Amino acid sequence: MNLMKTSLFAYGFRSNFFLAGVAAMLLVPVWAASFVFGTSIGSGWPPTLWHAHEMLFGFIAVAIAGFMLTAVPSWTGQKGFAGRPLVALAAVWLSARLLIATSSLWPQWVPALADLAFLPFLATLVMLPLLRSKNRNTALLVVLSALWLTNLAFHVGLTRLDVPFARHSLLVGIDIVLVLVTVIGGRIVPAFTTAALRQRGIEGDLKSRTALTGASIVAMVGIVVTDMFWEESRAAGWVAGAAAAFQCARLLQWRTRHTLRQPIVWILHLAYAWLPLGLALKAAALLGGYAIAAFWMHALTIGAISTMIIGVMTRAALGHTGRPLVVDPLITVAYVLLMVAALVRVFGFSLLKLSYPLVITWAAIFWTTSFALFVGVYTPILWNPRADGMPG
Question: Among 13, 39, 161, 183, whose CB has the most other CB atoms within 10 angstroms?
Answer without folding.
Answer: 13
